[in-house]
Write a structure and sequence with these properties.
By secondary structure, the protein is of the alpha/beta class. The chain has one domain: pyruvate-formate lyase- activating enzyme (Alpha-Beta Horseshoe). The protein has 8 helices and 7 strands, in the order H-E-H-E-H-E-H-H-E-E-H-E-H-H-E. Strands 1, 2, 3, 4, 5, 6 and 7 form a 7-stranded mixed β-sheet that branches. The radius of gyration is 18 Å and the shape is globular.
């Protein structure tokens, strides 16, 4: 962490870190003693335990969860768990309670707060409209949202396309435009600058 800070990195980004939270806590303690000053980022699918997020309170500066899927049946089909939507809702709220809305420095570098990512899926199987309404109404209308358009068939979908015909394609520009409209109509307005042409 100190070496990365010395190299000029803007933050320390832990990706899908829930299974190593105790080790992160121990390592961050020593890193701070050695002069770590840059933000700690917790980058996750939002399928985390409440205990892990509670342990990270006061340690994490920036939470960057995905909100993947709204419907439990769809979650079961694609993620293998029915409770993903409920867990994600609870965890994202808890994250926001700890760090609040995303704040930047004068150079546009994120310092602290919540950034929610959402991958737009073919045929709106993710339930984008409901996810955006949840973020605006139950988290914060000031939540910074990254609406992502880079889905492509991979993994099991690419290997067994007959099992997943509904997502065996990239999204259309119309599907992406719909997702952005859902966010705007929900009252959200803080998007990655690349998407400002939609507002």
């Amino acid at each position: 962490m100190i070496r990365l800070q010395d190299m000029g990195c803007h933050n320390i980004n832990f990706v899908t870190p829930e299974h190593v939270v105790p080790q992160i806590l121990e390592a961050v303690y020593y890193a701070i003693e050695m002069g770590l000053k840059i933000p700690i980022v917790y980058n996750t699918s939002a399928y985390d335990s409440e205990e892990s997020i509670e342990l990270m309170d006061g340690i994490v500066d920036i939470y960057m969860p995905d909100f993947k899927i709204w419907d439990p049946d769809i979650s079961w089909k694609y993620l293998g768990v029915r409770d993903y939507p409920e867990v994600a809702k609870k965890i994202i709220k808890k994250m926001w309670q700890q760090v609040g809305d995303l704040k930047f420095d004068e150079n546009g570098i994120a310092l602290r707060g919540l950034l929610v990512r959402h991958l737009v899926m073919p045929g709106n199987i993710a339930g984008t409209e409901k996810i955006m309404q949840f973020i605006a109404k139950e988290v914060s209308v000031h939540t910074y949202v990254n609406i992502m358009d880079q889905y492509y068939p991979a993994g099991l979908v690419a290997m067994k396309p007959k099992n997943y015909p509904e997502i065996y394609r990239r999204i259309t520009s119309e599907e992406y435009d719909y997702a952005v409209r859902c966010a705007i109509e929900a009252g959200l307005y803080r998007f990655d600058i690349r998407w400002l042409r939609y507002i």
